[in-house]
Write a structure and sequence with these properties.
- With about 140 residues, the chain is mainly alpha-helical.
- It has one domain.
- The protein contains five helices and no strands.
- Helix 1 runs antiparallel to helix 3 and helix 3 runs parallel beside helix 5.
- The longest helix has 28 residues.
- The relative contact order is 0.18.
- The model has no long low-confidence stretch (mean pLDDT about 90).
Length: about 140
């Protein structure tokens, strides 16, 4: 049981770090709107809502790719720790990442197509990472 919990938590942390790195790089190419430093929540929400409307499709694709890369890494790390319960762990990791994304998408409106491919993509990305983590003997 401890191994399962460690695998799930490690997968979530690894996925979150990967997403953070990808979003950091993404912000270099597609910077956030001006005036976000020190803004209150309402102002921040309005700034990002307007900013999202003007973002090019490449920004959303690279954002989505970062989320899926995080899911992949999360599944990979989780299976390296716990090879027995990988399917269950994949469901949990994908569910937590989906919850993180849902909160993000609730706070900052995103295009519907991005929401759909994110919902559809998380579990396969986590499972793909898990499948590639198997040691070949």
């Amino acid at each position: 049981m401890k191994k399962k919990i460690l695998a799930i938590l490690s997968g979530i942390v690894a996925a979150s770090i990967t997403v953070w790195i990808c979003e950091y790089v993404n912000h270099m190419y597609y910077p956030p709107p001006q005036g976000v430093d020190g803004a209150d929540w309402e102002t921040l929400s309005k700034l990002y809502t307007e900013h999202v409307k003007s973002m090019p499709i490449g920004a959303f694709i690279s954002l989505w790719a970062g989320w899926m890369m995080g899911a992949f890494v999360g599944g990979f790390v989780s299976r390296k720790i716990d090879t027995v319960n990988w399917k269950f762990n994949s469901y949990v990791i994908a569910g937590v990442l989906l919850l993180f994304s849902a909160l993000n998408m609730f706070m900052i409106p995103h295009p519907v197509w991005l929401i759909v491919i994110t919902v559809v993509g998380y579990y396969p990305a986590v499972c793909f990472g898990s499948m590639l983590a198997v040691d070949k003997k």
